[in-house]
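Page 47, continued from p. 46.
Same chain as before, 132 aa.
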Amino acid sequence: MFFKAGMFPVKNKTEIKEQRRYLRLHETGAEKLLWNALRGKQLGVKFRRQHSVGKYVLDFYCSEKHIAIEVDGAVHSLSGAKQYDAGRTRFVNDHGIRVFRFTNDEIFADLDKVIEKIACLINLHASKNTPP
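Result:
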């Protein structure tokens, strides 16, 4: 089910403001590297880091294109984490946001390729009024 923006107060809830702040201050090396490439509209759109949707905090979010970028470390390959990530992705998708995942290894091995993929995703979602 697709929800229109503003239909429910689910984004950046004040109850998890401290959690978002903590995550920004304690970002991983891969998140820091990717953020340096995304910040300041370097890809033509604004990304926010540690943006919440419901009880979940997204690593990077572009409200204009309804795109979330998640950076997955080794912990995400554990079975419990995979189930959690799947439920989280469903919730975020239900709010009209497409989630794209990259591993730490992908970012460290070939950041340019990751940025190229993200640029393609941005172009695929050319209209902010078109649900993914």
